[in-house]
Amino acid sequence: MENSSTPLISNEKRYAESLDVYWKKSRIVEVLERWINSYFSETIMKEIKVEKEKELMVLGIGSGPGQIEYHVLKQVLKQWPKITDTVVEPNLSHINKYKDLAAKKARALDGVSFDWRQHTLQQFRLKTQDQPLKKFHFIMLFHVLYFFEDLAEDLNYLKSILEDGGMIIAMMECDDSCVPLITEQFPQFKKNVYVVSTRDVEKELVKLQIQFVKHRIQMNLNVTDCLDGESKEEELLVDFITQSPFFKETASKSLYSDIIEYLKSIVLPKSEDGKSFIKCDCDAIVITK
Ligand SMILES: C[S@@+](CC[C@H](N)C(=O)[O-])C[C@H]1O[C@@H](n2cnc3c(N)ncnc32)[C@H](O)[C@@H]1O
Question: In a mutational test of the pocket of ligand 1, which residue from 118, 147, 168 has the highest number of ligand atoms less than 8 Å from its CB?
Answer without folding.
Answer: 147
